Prior knowledge:
The complex is a heterotrimer of chains A (289), B (756) and C (159). Chain A is α+β, with helices and mostly antiparallel strands. Chain A contains 11 helices and 14 strands. In chain A, a hairpin with a 6-residue loop joins strand 13 and strand 14. With 756 residues, chain B is α+β, with helices and mostly antiparallel strands. Chain B has 3 domains: 28-36 and 459-601, Aldehyde Oxidoreductase, domain 4 (2-Layer Sandwich); 40-139 and 214-290, Aldehyde Oxidoreductase, domain 3 (Alpha-Beta Complex), CATH 3.90.1170.50; 306-409 and 423-454 and 605-754, Aldehyde Oxidoreductase, domain 4, CATH 3.30.365.10. In chain B, the strands form 6 sheets. A 7-stranded mixed sheet of chain B has the order 3-5-1-12-9-10-11, with helices on both faces. In chain B, strands 7-15-14-13-8-27 form a 6-stranded mixed sheet. In chain B, strands 16-24-25-26 form a 4-stranded mixed sheet. In chain B, strand 24 and strand 25 (623-634) form a beta hairpin. In chain B, helix 12 runs antiparallel to helix 13. Chain B starts with 27 loop residues before the first helix and ends with a helix. The model of chain B has no long low-confidence stretch (mean pLDDT 96). With 159 residues, chain C is α+β, with helices and mostly antiparallel strands. Chain C has helices at 26-32, 89-97, 106-119, 125-131, 143-156; strands at residues 5-11, 14-20, 52-55, 58-61, 74-76. In chain C, strand 3 and strand 4 form a beta hairpin. In chain C, helix 2 crosses helix 5 (143-156). The longest helix of chain C is centred in the C-terminal third of the chain and has 14 residues, at 106-119. Chain C is globular and about 50 Å long. The mean pLDDT of chain C is 97.
Amino acid sequence: MGELRYEAPHTLQAAIALLAEAKGVTRVLAGGTDVIVQMETDLIEPELLVDIKKIPELRIITAENGGYRVGAAVTCMELMEHEGFCKTWPGVIDGVKLIGSIQVKGRATMTGNLCNGSPAADSVPALVAAGAAVTIIGPKGMRQVPVENIPVGPGKTSLAKGEVVTSFVFPPRAPHSGDAYQRFTPRTEMDIAVVGVGVNLTLDGSGTCTAARVSLGAVAPTVLLVKEAAAALIGSRVDDAALDKLAKAASAACRPIDDKRGTKEYRIKVAGVLAGRVAREALERARQR
Amino acid sequence: MASILEESGFDPHKKLKVVGTSPVKLDGFDKVTGRAKFGADLALPGMLVGKILRSPHPHAILKSIDTSRAEALPGVMAVVTRDDLPDQIQGSGDGDLTRNVMAREKVLYDGHAVAAVAATSESIAKEALKLIRVEYHKLPHVIDPVEAMRPGAPILHEYLRTEGIKGAGDKPTNVVERQEFAMGNIQAGFKQADVVIEREFKTNPIHQGYIEPQACVANYSEAGRVELWCCTQAHFGMRDNLSVILNIPKERICITASELGGAFGGKTIMYAEPVAILLSRKAKRPVRIVLTRSEVFRATGPVSGTHSRIKMGITRSGKFTAAEAEMVFQTGAFTGSMYYNAPQCMFTRYDLQNVKAVAYEVVSNRPKVNAFRAPGVPPVVFGVESVVDELAQAIGMDPIDLRLKNAATEGYVTVYGEALGPIGFVQTLEAAKNTEHYRAPLGPNQGRGVAAGFWWNRAGDTSGRLDIAADGSVHLTLGTIDIAGTRSSISMMAAEELGIPLDRVSAPAIANTDQLSYNRLTAGSRVTFSSGVIVVDAARKAIAEMRRRAAGIWHVSEEDVVYADGFCRVAKPSVGNFMPLSIADIVKQGGPISCESAMVVTGAGPGFGLHIVDVEADKETGAVKIVRYTVVEDAGKAINRRQVEGQYQGGAAQGTGWALNEEYIYGEDGRLQNASFLDYRMPVASDLPMIDTVIVEVPNPKHPYGLRGVGEVPVVPTLAAIANAVTKAIGVRPRELPMSPPRLLKLIEAAGKGKP
Amino acid sequence: MATRAQVTVTVNGELRQFPCEPQQTLLDVLRDELQLTGTKEGCATGDCGACSVILDGRLVDSCLVLAVEAQGKKVETIEGMAKGQQLHPLQRHILEQNGSQCGICTPGFLIAARALLERNPDPTETEVRYWLAGNLCRCTGYDKIIRSVLAAAKEMRGA
C-alpha cells in the first residue's frame, strides 16, 4: 500500500491539477462523512485525498439568475441555516435534513451525498425533482449537467478523472411551486433510506398542475426520474385519482433489490405509498406560495 | 449475634434517612466531566497497539498460518497464534474457552480470531495483519439452530454428543444438550382446559449493544506478573480462567477493572485479554487491544436466537390448567448460552401445577453467545405472554385480570423445585391496573399491550471491606463491579446502617483481584443485594467494635453501650454520666477501624414486572411507533429511587429495539452483513417517548433493607408487551422478532387477503 | 513508517501541537496524542455520537474529521465544559436526574446538548430528541437524559 497523502489546495486550479496527475486511488474530501468511514472500514485505501474546503468559492451560497448556486463544500447544516434557500426549496432541505445526525450534517455536503453514488442517498431524489444541475470543472474545462446524470451505478459516477463538482445550480422558482421529500426508514433517524421519494410540482392560478418531477431513491441502481409518475400529476388537480395513478407509476418504476434494509416487494409497495404522501405535501407547499 | 444470613435484621418500620432517596451517585462527577477511565482510556509508557486477524469464513479448517512477513515488518514487536496458547482438551470447558479466544483446528464463525500482532502504531499493526498468510479449507456452514439440528447439517464439533437425551447415539451432532423441567401432569391438565392455544415463535439473534467496545491493556512484567486493565463484569472469574488458559498461576495475575461502558451480560468472559497478555509477554512491553465496532458485532458474545412452541390451556372461568413449551436456543460456536434459565423461568409467576418445558441448546457458525439481561428468558416469554394474551381474548377477560386470577403467591412451588418466599406479583399487577395509563383512551391506529415477567435474581460469593479513617470518614472497598450505579446504592446502605449522612461515605473503590477474596461476577441482578449484605455486615462489625472501644474508654460493659446515628452512648443514665462518643472520637482514640465481610450471600428474592405499552401503527408501511410506555415492577425496596427508575427505563428501551428492529442479518455466505450501528438498529432518542415507571415495594425480608435486584426483570416482559400492542393496532399477531416493517406489512397484507 | 504532519489546534482554549499520520482522525489524536480521553470511541463510523466535539463552533463527530483537517481550528471537548469545580448546568442536571448510568455516552450527549441550547434555548421535547438522535445510549432509554436537558434549558433561560 502506498502512503496516504493529504492535500488542501486553496484554488480550484490547484485542486484540478492534483486530481488530474494523481495515480492510484484518489478521493475528493469535502465533508468526509463517507470517505473517512470507508477508509476506517477498509473499503478503500486512498493514496491521495484532495481537501476542497479551503477553496473560498466552494463554501458559499449565492442567489444567482433568479435561482441559487450552492458551493460544493457547503455543509448540510449551513444549507439548513440559509433562510432564503429553505423557503424556496423545502423539499431539498427535507432530504438534506435526513443525512445522518446533526454531527454528520455539521460536516457532510450534498456533493458527497451525490458523488458517493449510493442509490439511497437522501438529498439526491429531491435534487433531481428540483431540476438541479451540477457544475463540474476538470482538465477539459467546465460543464453543467443535470444531477440525475451523475450517478451511473452503485458507488459510481459519470465524473471523469480530474473532474470535481464545484457547485449545485437551482433554477428560478415559478410561483405556486412546492417540493417535498420523504423516505421510509425503520427508525425515526439515523437509518439509510429503504425507499426515498422526491416530488416537485407547479400549479397554475386555478390549481391545476402544470409541471412536475418525481424522483425515486433506493429502488434501483441509481436514482430514478420517473416521467410516468410526473405525467400522472401534470394536467390534474392532484386529486385522489391522480395520486392513485402516481402511486402506481412510482411502484411500477422500481427495480429494487433484496438487501439487509428491505425486500423488493416491500420497496415496491412503499414507493407507491410514499409517492402519494410526498405529492400531498408538495401540493400543500405549492398552494402556500 | 446471629449471622446476617440467618437474621437480616430487616425492619419494615425502621425510619430510613438515606435509603429510599435519590442522591447524586458518587461516581457521577467523573462521568459528567470525562474523567472516568474506561477500558480504552488507560495508557502506559511504551504501550503497543494490538490488533487481531480474523477469519472471513464461517466454517473452515485452519490449515496453516505463516506470520513470517508480519514479524519482519519494522515496528512489529510480537505476533501470536494458536501455537502460543497451551492446548486444552477439545470439548472441555477450557477447551472451548481457549478456542473461542483463538481458533485452533477450525474457524467456526466469520470473525473468529486467528492471529494477533502488537506494533508501535495502529497503521503498522493493520499493515502487519495483511502480511499474515492463512490457509483455510472452507467447509459448509449452518447458522439457524433448527437447520443445525437436521440430519445432514454441517457438523461443528466431531466430538459433540447430546447430553440429556437417553440413547443419544454415538454420531456427531450440533445439539449440545437437552434439559427438561416438569411437574404435574400436562395431559390431564390440557384435558381440563376449555380453550387450548398452541403457537410457534421465532426470535432472531441480537447483540447487547453496549456503546463501549471491549478494551484492555496487558502488562507482563519481568517478574512474570500480569497486570491487566480491562472492562469486564467479572474480574475474579476472568483471573481464574486466564490462569488456566495461559498456564500462569493465579497469584501472578492482577486484574483492575476499568469503568464499564455498558455490558448487560456481554462482558462476563474473556475476549482479547489473553491475546494482549501473550503479546505483552513476547514484546516485553504493555499492549492495548481495543475492538472495533465491527469486531464487537462479529466476534464477541451476542445473544441467542430462538425457536419455540408454546401451548397453554385455560378454563372458561380463566384458570390456567397446563403449560407446555419446547424451545431451541442457538449458542453459537461453543456452548454457554444459559438457555436452561428459560424452561425454569418462563412460566414461573403463574399458579400452574402442570408444566413441562423442554429446551435444546444447539451450536452453529456464529460467535459463541453470551448473556443478555435475564439470559434466555425474554425471547421465550415473548411467546408465553403472547399466548396468555390470546387466551385472554379467547375467553373475553381483561389481560391484567387474567394474570391476577392466576398469579403465584408466597409458598408456590416452582417447576425448579423451590418454594417462592414473599413476592410482589399480585401487588405489581394491581398497581399496573390502577395506572392512569391503563385507563387512558387510545387514538386511531393505536393498540395497547401488556405482559408480565419474572426473574429469580441471584446472590453468591461476595466480599468487601469497610474502613473508618482517622477523621471518622467511611471508605468502602467493594469486590463487585459497578455497571450502572450500584456502588452508590451500596454506600447508601452503609450510611443508613451507620446512621450517618451519605456525604461522610466516600465513593467506593472497586478492588482489584489482589485486594479482596473472590467475588462472583456482576450479573444476575445480584450486586446491590449481595454487596449490600456485605457492607451492612461490615458496618455492623464496625458498630460492634466501636461499642467495644467505647465500653473500654468508659470502663463499662458492652451491654451498657448503645450505638445510633454516629454516636456511642450509655444505654441508660444509670450507667454513668459520659458524653457520647462520635465515630471520629472513637477512631481518634483507638485508631482506624477496618472490617471485612466475605460470604456466600443467599436470600435473593425474585422480581416481577408488568409492562403496559401503547403503539401506533402505519398500516401502509408496517412502521410502528411506541407512543406510551409504563413499567411497573417490584423492587422490594428501592435503595436509590432514581437509579431503580433508570433500570426500568433502560430495560424497556432495550426490549423495544429487540422487539422492533434489531437482528443479526447473515448472507448466504454465512458472513454478518450488518456489523455496524448503521444497520444494527438500536433505538435512538427520537424513537422513544418518556418511559413512566411505578416502583412497587414488597420487601424481601432476607435482605437488611428488603431489596430485590432490578437489573434484569425490566427486559423480560417488553417483547410480548409490544407484540401484544402491535397485535391490537394492526389486527394480526406477529410471531417473529423483530417486528420490522417489512414483516409487519406482510402480515397486514396477508390478513387483508383473508389468510390467517 | 508513515510520514507524520505537525498539526496545531486550539483545544479548550489552549494551543496544542502534535504529530499525526494523515489517516488518523481528530478522535485518535485527542485521545492518544493529547490524552484527552473524555471523548469516546463507540463506532468510528459516525453512528453513535460518543466522539462528539465542537469544531470551530460546529457540533461534529470527531471520528469523521481527520486530524490534519483540524489544523488551525478550535476544538472544544468535554474536558473544557466545567469551569474548574463549577459544573455546567447540563452536567449538574444529568447528575441530579440520574441521566448517566454507565457514563460512556455522557460526554457526547453533554457536548451535543450544549450545542443545541446555544442555538435554541427553549427546545421542545421533540426538538431535543431529534437533535440528540445522533447520540446512542443503551442504558437509560433516553428518558432521564431528555429531562435533564429540558431542566437545564429552563434553568439557563432563568425561567
